[in-house]
Amino acid sequence: ASPSLQLHFNTAFHIMKAKEVKVLRKKIEKADRLLDPIPALVDGTYGEYSIRAQAGNFRLEGNDRQLSLRWCKSWQDVKPDYLFPKMVELFRDNMGEMYKKSSWGLDLVEKKEEFQHRKARFLVVTTTASSSESNHDEEKKTANATDEPSSETNAEQPEELVAFCHYRFDFDDDQYPSCVALYLYEIQVAAAFQDCKIGQCIMQLLNEIAKQAVMPKIMLTVFKSNQRAMAFYTQKLQYEIDAISPSQNKEFADYEILSKTLE
Fold first, then answer.
1. 138-149 per-position pLDDT tens digit
2. Calpha distance 74→77 (Å, rounded)
3. What is the pTM of this model?
4. Staple partner for 31: which of 95, 197, 202, 213, CB 3.0–4.6 Å?
């Protein structure tokens, strides 16, 4: 083709791509305006947990546990205030050593700023100190209880952070976007709850949230060295290595980008 014709094709291509990106950006903006997705999920079952509404709040019930569930449109909505620092601490406890050994390094200030991004959305699961005890202990305390009222109610007891996830609605690829996606930036479960299938429940909730927001897929990043997480996503949840992952483009990296297309 002549230089002038090639220039015409290139210009037309960029105009077309600009229009496509504009359409995708509007989809993201629409998703960002969505309010609390949890009310639409009440009475549904997600893994081994069900969501119940109670006095304006939401609970996850399952595995002989009752846990509080809340959606937060920003880090400032994470209440009580002491829970947000606990989220950063939980990230450090779970992932600190792995980040130190990675090409990214560990920077808690940067991670906190990531959580404080204007597009960051959260699901936060908590319990109270008393309700985190085993059923056996609860039954034992009930059996030994007197008729005297407790001097401290559950409402006065501090909530314990069980798990949280941080997600955003975004392009599938910043440089060459082809679609929009719910991108999972973070999912962390406290050590004491890691065998309670809370993570699987949260992932199923994210599936439903993505569908509400009309996102065609969910994406996330996993360190190759994190074999437990890799097995969780690829074997249990059927995620696959995405086409934009470095390994699919003959680039070296110590992580993979995984994705799952939603039906």
1. 444 444 444 444
2. 5
3. 0.84
4. 213
